[in-house]
Every structure is written in structure tokens, then in C-alpha cells.
Amino acid sequence: MAARINQENFEAEVLKAELPVLADFYSDSCVPCKRLSPLLAEVEEENAESLKVVKINVNFDTELAEKYEVQAAPTLILFKNGEEIDRLIGSVKKTEIIELINK
Amino acid sequence: MYDIIIIGSGPAGLSAAVYASRAELNTLVIEKEYQGTGQIAESERVENYLGLYGESGFDLGEKFREHALSLGARFTDGEVTSISKEEAFYKVSLSDSTDIETKAIIYAAGAKPKRLNIEGENKYSGCGVSYCAICDGAFYKDKIVAVVGGGDTALSDALLLSKTSKLVYVIHRRNELRANKALQTAANQKENIRFILNAVPVEITGDKKVQSVKLLRNNVLEELDVNGVFVAVGTAPESGLLKGIAELDGNGYIVAGEDCVTSAEGIFAAGDVRTKQLRQVITAAADGAVAVHSAENYLLELSR
Known about the structure:
The structure holds 2 protein chains of 2 kinds. Chain A is α/β, with parallel strands linked by helices. Helix content of chain A is 35%, strand content 26%.
């Protein structure tokens, strides 16, 4: 299961992580976010060696959402070595997530 | 070759899947959204579905889906790009370029939120323009937002946003709201909800983020400073695929009576996408059952 990350441990868990990190910015009661969860779990399991998946609840960690200019839930951002590589906004298919993590 | 392809997995499509599975027809449900249940999932509470009252729309949709799955219904996620009539069957093409052949189609693709079709809407979609207040409200904590629309959805959205945003404008093109009285009373009691009536948005402007919405209020151009715009101006039928194949009415709904029979032989319309008086979960579910019955009659004729 992807760990929930917050403002305090974002730097250590995401920016300074050794593996590429796929960060899921989600909100409470958001149906597209709920639908995305099982797909993310599959991607996480299939790429356990090469990818770390984390979740950020924007209802709580508003500052992180603001910092990364996230304005829609769900938004997936791929980080490598502390840098944003690319992002996906809204409902997406598994193939699109795989395309993102291969960037 | 399938007997029936069901396009859409909302209440109409899932109900059709239940009836088709029980009739032992070779059936496949094609759904655009992975493990979807249609618009019902977005509904906070469903109070009027017989026997299952007070559930969230999400949970009710999951039950519908489980029911269909328990009877062996098969699903595939894919976006239909075209439907074409071959001799005695239809070819359904998906975006991953697979083609599926079927004798009959139950078209239950539902409806999607209408867009404003104004300057700036596409540019800021997903970064300042939203069609889901529940999803994106959190991004506008202590900010100023506008909700466009005057119906139940618009006022529910405004009430939800008023809990976290500093100020919520409700922009509506008429001088009266369409939403039910209970919602209107609740919204009127909120100090941070302001109504802007007789006003039509014409442009959403900003730089990287949304900064304002321009509108014509009583035909005078005004500009409101806002950080986000929530669009709640109703829904439009997802009927584009049947253009030129089956008859549509002026608003894009597929013309079909209670028997769900369309002008295209072998295509049956069920749920919100069909011309009908009342679009509710219960009428969509009823359509699913009737559409399978009509399709069975059609398949019987075909085999003679």
C-alpha cells in the first residue's frame, strides 16, 4: 500500500528518495480518486523494485498542493531526484500511468 | 460474435447486464471508465431508490455492479470510437483499435457535464476550471470561487464550497434559480454566498492560474476576481456515436419510446441518453430491463 505523505516528511520521502516517486494528490470523497486507487495499487505492485508510490491528501496538505500548483484531484506527479518530470491530471487509464512512469 | 454489446456501465447498463446474463445471452459490457458505475457515483446520497434508501450513490453503484458480476456479466474497459452496420450485425470499434462484432447493441452511455463553451474554459480546465466541486473544492480554501448554474447541483456545490472558501459567487443566467427550495433557503442563509443573477459568463481569464471571470450582467460587461470557476450547468447526452445511425432529438437525446427501440434496427437506447420524461436511477434501471427484452425479441426475429 502506498504510504500517505504530508508536509513534514515530503522532502525526505519524495524529494530525497532514491527511487522515482509517483505522488498521487487526492481529495476526500472524490470518486475519480477512488477509481484510481486500485489501478495505482496494481502499478505499485508491478513496479515494486523500481518505483515508490505515495499519496497526499489535499484536504489536509493544502500547502503541498499549492507549492506544486495542483488544482484538480486526482493529479499524479512523477518525481525523479527531487524534480518533477511530468504529471497527469484527472481520470486516467492504466496505460497512461505506465507511460508516465517510464518517462 | 456477441448477442448483445452493452455500451455504458451506469445503472441502465448494469441493469441490462443483469437481465442479459440471466437470459444467458452472450453479452459484453464496454465501459469507458475502469470499474465505473456512471453518474450515480457522484451523488452524495440517494434517497429515492426503492428499498435501498439513504445510501451514497457510490455504494449503490457498487452494489449494482456486484449484482451484475455475481451473475457472470463480463466487462471490458475501452472507449468506443465508432459503430458501423455490417450485413446482419454491428461492428463496434474501440480506441485501442480492436473491433468487436455483435448482433445487437444496448446503448446506455448516459450523459456528461455540459461545458460553458467560452474563451479560457479549455485552457484552465483542471487548473482553475472544475466540473466536480467535491473533488476540487479543497484547492480553494480561503479563496474566491464562482459557481456557474442555478440548479440543484450548482447550489449543492456552492454550499459545499462555502464551508472552506472565503467567498462563493453563484452566477446564473436567469433572474430566478431552478434549484429546490430547501437548497435555496440554505444558500440564502450563508453570508459568504453571493448571487449574481441575469448574468452570462463570457470569458475566463488569468495567467498561469485563473484570475477572473468576465460576464454580461443585464447586458453590461463586468469582471469578477475569482481564483476558480466551478461549472454546474447541467448535463448533455453522450450520443455522438449514434449521429447518422439513429434518430436524435434537438437536444441530442436518442429518440426511443418506453420499449427502448431506436430508429436503427438492432440498437436499443437505455437510461439518461434516451428521450424520456424523468431521468432517475430507477427509470434507468427499468430501461436496462426493457432494452434486454426488446433486444431478445429482435434476436429471435434475426434467427428465424
